[in-house]
Write a structure and sequence with these properties.
Structural class: mainly alpha
Helix content: over 70%
Oligomer: single chain
Number of strands: 0
Distance between the termini: 81 Å
Order of helices and strands: H
Shape: rod-shaped
């Protein structure tokens, strides 16, 4: 009986670790996507401002 409890606890611990890693990967991916969007927006604004200054 004790062995089954340890196995279940081990599986739960492993599942929690896998979920935490997956969440970190998703957050990193979302962060990278948002950073890319922000960079594109800033680059677009820079180009637009540069064109306004040149006109």
């Amino acid at each position: 009986m004790k062995k089954i409890g340890l196995v279940v606890f081990g599986i739960l611990a492993l599942a929690v670790i896998i979920i935490l890693i997956a969440v970190e990967i998703i957050e990193f991916a979302l962060g990278a996507i948002l950073l890319g969007i922000a960079a594109l927006v800033l680059w677009g604004m820079f180009k637009w401002a540069k064109n306004k200054i040149e006109d």
